[in-house]
Amino acid sequence: METADVVVVGGGIIGMSIAYQIARRSDMSVVVLDKGAGLGEGSTGGSAAITRQRYSLIENVRIARDANVVFRNWAEFTGLASPRAIFHPIGVLWMLDDDPAAVAADHARLAAEGIDVAILDPSDVHEEFPALSTCMVPFDLTGEVPHECRDGEAFLLERDTGFFDATGALEDLAEAARARGVEVRLRSEVTEVTVAAGRATGVVLADGTRLSAGTVVNAAGPWCNRVSAMAGIELPWELVPTRIQVMYRDLPPEVPRPLPVVGDAAGGIYFRPEASDQQIVAGSILEEDEREATDPDRYDHNADRVFVETKIHALHHRIPSLPHRGRLGGMAGLYTVNRQDVLPIVGPTELEGFVVANGFSGHGFKESPMVGAMVAAYLTGERAEYDTDVPMSFFAVDREPRAVEDKTVLA
Ligand SMILES: Cc1cc2nc3c(=O)[nH]c(=O)nc-3n(C[C@H](O)[C@H](O)[C@H](O)COP(=O)(O)OP(=O)(O)OC[C@H]3O[C@@H](n4cnc5c(N)ncnc54)[C@H](O)[C@@H]3O)c2cc1C
């Protein structure tokens, strides 16, 4: 039987971050097992990889802020001379229609954490991002209510972040982890977690291969409940694989640049440039657009026509110069929503030797470097450069649900 100190089930951005973070601080032997034929076949492959730092809970702000330092120093962090992933700090503009006092309070809260934020009025927005309308009146899709624009008063801009490249980052981490001795095995589906004398002792693969391990980490993304069930444990959290859609539209040269990442409450969307500014990708910020996927192996990977046709109106409302022509497409992916408080669960469980890192909703990409650091520090007892000071107990499995302002992807 093969043996490893740590077996990580799932080689998405969370599992790979955990493996790499262990390898960069210890000599522990680590094997990452993924059932996919390639990297990124789970949530990570569909991720918009937006790296915003504005969250309602200050610990989430700090985790996102600390992860941004990693994204900005990616070559040094990974030790790769030519990483694939490129960080795009194009700014994240919040168009939420909050009153100026609320925007000022948000500004003060984030600035106190060292985040480079600014308050923009409509004329500032038009100057910095000339393509954007500053109207905050939702578009009436029935056509029955005449649209009368009303400008928002104050908008918050995170200047020092934007978006990264989810699959590029995953491939970089796999390369960096392998360079430090981690074994990454694809087409390796875990079908059993072995347990003896009240602790996890390893895993069995679909082809019958057995691996014994000191620790088994469940980083199986939308399949996490299945892996926990293999270990015979029931967690007190409702972790729901959720189908989530995005749409794409060509972004021709006549639309004025630059464009930031935008969170748009009037249209119920977020969007950002894609494909070297040739396209725009947009998703929803509304809970009603999140649909439970009863079987993560079987869901419609295409975007619904009604989703694309609704969101394109929101996009035209925010970017009036976007032509009503060009390719229009979309896709659907999965992420795992923790219905109780939309925060992940990370850390040890009631079963000794069985650690979970699950339920990341729409935040897992940006949180991955710090989640990797938390789990690696717990398993090795070592801290490393770039670690966050937010303790893993913030995401503890045995916590009470935390009071978040918003249970949507905005959280
Ligand atoms: C459309 C979309 C947009 C998003 N936008 C953002 C964003 O802008 N910013 C952000 O921070 N986050 C975003 N997210 C969320 C983010 O992508 C996820 O939270 C993150 O990728 C979760 O990573 P993971 O490693 O936990 O899961 P996954 O990437 O799903 O990895 C889990 C892996 O486990 C493997 N696996 C499962 N079961 C087994 C088994 N039994 N044996 C072996 N392997 C197994 C799977 O093959 C898979 O590769 C978005 C997600 C989606 C879908």
Can you walk me through this structure?
By secondary structure, this protein is of the alpha/beta class. The protein has 2 domains: about 1-85 and about 165-235 and about 340-395, FAD/NAD(P)-binding domain; about 90-160 and about 240-340, D-Amino Acid Oxidase, subunit A, domain 2 (D-Amino Acid Oxidase, Chain A, domain 2), CATH 3.30.9.10. It has 10 helices and 17 strands. The strands form 2 sheets. Strands 3, 4, 5, 10, 11, 12, 13, 14 and 15 form a 9-stranded mixed sheet that branches. A hairpin with a 4-residue loop joins strand 8 and strand 9 (about 210-220). Helix 1 (about 15-25) packs parallel to helix 7 (about 165-180), helix 1 packs parallel to helix 10 (about 365-380) and helix 3 crosses helix 10. Bound molecules: flavin-adenine dinucleotide.
Keyphrases for this structure?
411 residues; FAD/NAD(P)-binding domain; 2 domains; 9-stranded mixed β-sheet; 8-stranded mixed β-sheet; 10 helices
